[in-house]
Design brief:
Blueprint lengths: L2 H10 L4 H11 L4 E5 L2 E4 H17 L7 E5 L4 H12 L3 E4 L6 H11 L3 E5 L3 H9 L6 E5 L12 E2 H4 L16 E6 L9 E5 H14 L7 E4 L6 H14 L2 E4 L5 H10 L4 E3 L2 H9 L13 E4 L6 H10 L4 E7 L6 E5 L13 E2 L4 E5 L12 E6 L6 E2 L3 H7 E2 L2 E10 L5 E6 L4 E3 L2 E3 L1 H8 L5 E11 L3 E10 L7 H9 L10 E4 L13 H9 L12
Parallel strand pairs: 1-11, 3-4, 3-5, 5-6, 6-7, 10-11, 10-12, 12-13, 13-14, 26-27
Antiparallel strand pairs: 1-2, 8-9, 9-19, 14-15, 15-16, 17-18, 18-21, 20-21, 21-22, 23-24, 25-26
Helix pairs in contact: 2-3, 2-4, 2-9, 3-4, 5-6, 8-9, 10-11
Amino acid sequence: MSQEFRATIRKAREHSIGDLLRRSASRTPNKSAVICGREVWTFVELDVICNRLGRGLRRAGVSRGDRVAILSRNSHAFAAMRFAVARIGAILVPINFMLKSDEINFILVNSGARILATGADFVESARAAVAKGCAVEALIWMPGEEPALPPPGMITFDDLLHSDGSQLDDFVDGEDPAQIIYTSGTESLPKGAVLTHHAVMWQYVSCVLEGSMATEDSVLHALPLYHCAQLDVFLGPAIYLGASSLITAKPTADNILSLIETHEITSFFAPPTVWIAMPRSAHFDQTNLSTLQKGYYGASIMPVEILLELQRRLPRVKFWNFYGQTEIAPLATVLKPEDQIRKAGAAGKPAINVETRVVDSAMEDVSVGEIGEIVHRSPQLLSGYYSDPDKTAAAFRDGWFHSGDLATVDSDGYITVVDRVKDMIKTGGENVASREVEEAIYGLSSVSEVAVIGLPDARWIEAVTAIVVVRSGENLTEDNVIDHCANTMAPFKVPKRVIFIDSLPKNPSGKLLKRELRQRFAENVRVAEGNFGR
């Protein structure tokens, strides 16, 4: 068989992220693919735009394997860039727009990105990060949900579109890297998880099957697309299926409620913090949410009391808990609608393309109820951390990927995540899972949000500390919280101190930033003997 004929067969068997959009455009050409602000693109329009963008990126100097970074809020342009980059065999590097210029520069340097595309809100941050030294050769300005004029001296999104819109003929191997997703870095410098086209697409299949996703869905994307949850658990599968996507850069409760009603949204994902905020909105009861059928949450466990409230106030909505992490593209386990109450608090069972165990330090499966570490095998897994063989070797051991998450397994095989290794509180010689204490405190009707952390203490080494946000118009005291916990759990798990604040710090994907809380309040803690007096 000649090399030329082998190449023909490879091309005929090509299956990469860029191919998915073309196939959806062929099936449903005139259906709305992406809606954002004033922009409405059908699938065939989005497909042509991505071809033009691909050629425009080539003109800007992007070659196969080059890294293209994006620093932007959600937009139609972000969605198009995602597929255009994939289509020409380049590698996407989404960047958390909450980062400071030094942190952005770290990712640009570490990834070796040659292009940085940025939205209107982050032009100065982008320029400052690039000025610190990196491989970036060009800045590209991207339009957003709200109209804005591009600054002078930058290549614009529209400039890239001045190209032929016919199909690109690049061959992209499914085992080529599609993206480098940097971990949130809430505890240390971020690591770049390298994910191939096949890894991401195997994950799309898991999402579609386990989440009952369908072509008929109208999906609202409100959480940041730089995060793999919104990008790859929801936007990617929606494009794959030919479902319609409404994109917004404003994940506020009032905006979300308005968009669900106006656009008759059927499917929506958010972390528990956003689901908690929605019923607290003054507009909730006046908004028609009757089209909403599928509700997804992740990033942390939904408090049982909140889940019960949502099921009562949104009776038509079926809920799914999606658990995972960046390194597995990111879906790993699923708790389905029929198990939401029966197995409340659990992360569910492994998705169809994932094999998951909970093991002890000897790699033996833990007994029912015993705490161990979650490990995975899956084609969805990263191929390694970019330019970091030591961290890659530390994560892949004994033929498994070690997640760093601690969990238990019940007699039915359902996994419950009890904490990250780093969030386990070691107090007085005992281990306390912060989530268990948080669940107990959510049982108080006056609590809007809570985060439990360990703070330095001379007596306890780490003292269990509850940081509480009280619902508007409600009253709650430290004694109320402590007494409530004392009635439901062992004494060593009961908070030694309760701190009341107006809001909890979160990153744009809704994750609580416990490191920030520890840093903020550790400075004020007196570590003398008897610090908390309890």
